[in-house]
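Subject: Sanity check before I submit

Could someone independently write out the structure tokens for this chain? I want to compare against mine line by line before I put it in a report. The sequence has 401 residues.
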Amino acid sequence: MDTFKDLAARHDALMAEAQGMRIRDRARKLRVTEGELVARQLGVTARPIACKPVEICPKLGSLGRILCLTRNEWAVHERYGQFQMVEVNPKVGLVLGTDIDLRLFFSKWTRAWEVNDNGRISLQFFDREGVAIQKIFQTDDTDLAAWQKLVDEFALAPAAGRGAQAADPSPVQAASAAVAAGAGAPSAAAVSVGAAAQAAGITPEQAAALLAVRDAPVFEPLKPAVTDHGATLDEAARLHLRNRWLAMTDPHQLWPMLQELKLSRITALANVGEDLCQQTDLLAIEKVLQYASEHELPIMVFAGNHAAVQIHGGTVKKLMRAGPWFNILDPNFNLHVNTDAAVSSWVVNRPTDDGPVTSLELYADNGDIIVQFFGLRKPGNPELKAWRALMEGLCAKPLHR
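---
Independent answer below. Compare away.
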């Protein structure tokens, strides 16, 4: 594990070599998580706040218009607007409204900061490994007084200098912040125990202990990467899966069913039958979005991670490719998808009480969903005929009706 001094030196060298590199990319180059750089205040200024999403989320509507960003490694989903109807319990959160539509899973949320990244201010939430779950950015129309009130209510410590980290509020942590704030200016990586003690008004022994806290791990180690290209099931298992799939009455029943059967999504897609799940060309995403844009076909776009899913519902207009990234660049909605990272693309056909509901889904090498697209619909209504025809047009074989 790097001490703060080692990590700061490597970070400074990288910043000098590649000015303007985004914090997520810097973290990847340094082989740490984004949360680690935020916690150590390397390249950003960060104020730790209590990670209490059950209390914070219902108050986000007071901020007015914000930018809500939810992402995974391969897709970034950005939606402008205001938090409206927010429902929370200790485990999950549901945000519904014309602007922001979210599904939140709070057991994974463990750290939070207000972050100033070169003048761009946000609230950022991380899991126990330092992977970003969600970010809420200020816009020109954000109520700054309400923002400040919210941050002050949940702040764990004053804004601290380089090298500080966040934990539960305590005298030790507050003193650590004082050490970092007093000794954190450009030479923080080389700060001596004596200088830290003098800056904080404490004894050298206390300063040595606090600097050790500063160098302690903030997050758990990242889990090793895995691959999942799907397993082949025997005939009995395939038949059982198919019967359970055909018995679904709601699209949301799919994930609990797969958990009960202890199957990965990719394994299920590959074994349930081509009339229910059919692999498509990896360029299908571009074809679908181009059609939706040209014909003003309203769609739903789902992207997220293990702790948050963000949804856009409506039409899309401006499409643009930039290298491996295919982008939607509309005034209130942006999507960025690294299509080079997709190893498979599927049309997924779910039975429901309202008739079949189909989606286009991109998957990464580890079996995770990159992004999902549906035709816009509300419960109780059938799928849009134009969307169904678009999905059928991607398939070489007929879909189950």
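---
OP: Matches mine. For the report I'm noting this point. Residues 166-191 have pLDDT under 50 and may be disordered.
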